[in-house]
Amino acid sequence: MDILVIICLVLGFLFFLGGAVGILRMPDFYSSLHPAGKLDTLGILAMVMGLALYNLHHFSLEAVLVSIKMFLIVFFVFLSSPTATHSIVDAGMRAGLRPWTQKKGKE
Fold this sequence. Notes:
About 80% of the residues lie in helices and about 0% in strands. The chain is an all-alpha fold.
């Protein structure tokens, strides 16, 4: 059980790390929102899954209820993350921020 918890936590860390690298590597504001939205959601799912499994080491009704509450938080993040990303993109568009276009070389 401990190995499964460690795997989930490391996997969540790798998703968060990939999201951070993706944010830094993308060329513009709109492109950087894609890894932020996708990988943060997957990262929190993996991390909370590991924490919920760790919480169930001492199996009791209270531990089960706490683990269910953790997954309800993940469910809320799954619902709110796309909405928040859309709102940020909409705010950028309303502010006049133009998407990145690739410059063509001399022909």
